[in-house]
Amino acid sequence: MPVHTKGGVGGRIAYYRSVMRPKLTQQQLADAANVALGTIRKIERGERGISDSTLEAIADALGVDPIRLRTDRGPGQTRVRDALPALSAAIAAYDLPEDGPVRCLRELRAAVAEAERWRLAAQYTRIVRKLPDLLVELARAYHQAATGGRAELAGLLVRAYRSADAVAYKFGARDLSARLIELMRWAVPEIGDPLLIASVAYVRTETFFAAHAHASGLRALEQALDVAPAPSAAPKVAARGALHMRAAVIAGRARDVAAAAAHLDEARALADRVTENVYCGTEFGPDSVRIHEVSVAVSLGDEHVGRALNVAGEWKPPKDLPAERRSGFYIELARAQLWSGLADDAFESLKVARHIAPQHTREHPWVREDAATLRRLKRADAESLTNFTEWCAAI
User: Fold this and answer.
1) pTM, 2 dp
2) Which residues, at least 6 apart from 88, have a Cβ–Cβ distance to it below 8 Å?
3) Which alpha helices (DSSP H) does 171-284 contain, by range?
4) CATH of domain 1-72
5) What is the mean predicted confidence (pLDDT) over 334-348?
6) Domain extents in the chain
């Protein structure tokens, strides 16, 4: 449904464009959003309506949540959350899809790859708008294919389920997330790809995080490492490295200092053997391991928090890393700064996370907790802190 404006939405776009650092011209915004310059001008003057897709493209270019352009102080509910039932419906009949059209394999591969890019960029609105129909189409293609031709379609299903799960998990739909992970585990044996099996084991850890079953999650990851392929080539190195990286974090949550250190050391050694890149849907390399060093330090807490500050003092995640991972770094750093009595620094880190990936930041439970704490500590602070806590529904 298009969002029409008589200056309200356009005025907010013009405002956010003017406060960007550096300030964006209308032409620069048009180029970044892949929208015609004349369209930007008319929208800002309130002379034309704006579709959902155009609004999202402009919001992405500005680094803000689309809701910030629709209303200054939107409710905690988002359009993504409202769309989650469509994802549930799409997988309810995964084994009995309705008849309908199926695109060729080349087009299906491209659609799944596009959804993966959205996942890494934390563009969840786009995922929930496109994934339900894609999941149904992939299931239809899988069941229509001859038995011998199902392996690649099963792999596409696993990758698409993972993109859908990223939204479900980030937006607190834990039952839906668990269901999507079980469907990944259902589909992956037919593929026979040990790298994809390792990828599913990596994602499965979400269920242990959600249940606070950290010791069990660590055991599951260590079992996955036992059967993971030997690190003989870059993708295999990355697969093992990612599992060690994940194991280090959940060991930290379990307060198992020795296991966290051991897995982090293994991840670091493997990362030195590859370039930073996305392998089988997961970013891995030296930069990702540094980000996880911060996560492990925060997970362990107490005297380990200083390690997170030390890493951040000498290094920042480069801009070519996926937005979701970079925003996660600043969210974790903000918690370490808050625990260390650095309230102003913590707020700055939260704002950086928001600029990088608004939807990811807004829905992160730690952001709500820490923003609420900051507001209590600095009740007389500038309006920006109150605005931030309202934006992420912390108050």
Assistant:
1) 0.83
2) 176, 179
3) 174-191, 194-211, 214-227, 234-253, 257-271
4) 1.10.260.40
5) 95
6) 1-72, 76-191, 193-309, 316-395
